[in-house]
Amino acid sequence: MSACKHLSTSLLQLLLEAEVRQLTLGALHQFNLDVEECEQFARSGPVPGFQGDTLQLAFIDLRQLLDLFIQWDWSTYLADYGQPTCKYLRVNPTTALILLEKMRDTSRKNNVFAQFRKNERDKQKLIDTVAKQLRGLINSHHS
């Protein structure tokens, strides 16, 4: 269990560290494959002293965070935040904001012409709106 928790924490820290300045959705999809391998290992066989899917719980924070970004399910996250039955109960808004800002920076820096394409502009507006709402959650939670 401690090895799985260490792996999960290390993988999350890898996404959050300051040296990682930009993140793309494609990179998150690849990262997700690595996490799925870890989850598969956790499911692979019984471990003496643990019940069923206990080892998989070590990856639940990371799983919910990746699902939120890959499914781009911000409306659910924002609407249900703070509810005990929330789908993304384990996703910290500060963590989500850090990753979202890394994605926003990627979209802005990588394509000089992105501002001229409507779908890129719309995506940036959505990211900006979600970031603003996350900041609101963080500020209200710390008040």
From TrEMBL:
It holds the Pfam family Sec15_C. GO terms for cellular component: exocyst; membrane. Residues 2-102 form the Exocyst complex subunit EXOC6/Sec15 C-terminal domain. One of its GO terms (biological process) is intracellular protein transport. It comes from the Eukaryota. InterPro entries: EXOC6/Sec15, EXOC6/Sec15_C, EXOC6PINT-1/Sec15/Tip20_C_dom2. This is Exocyst complex subunit EXOC6/Sec15 C-terminal domain-containing protein.
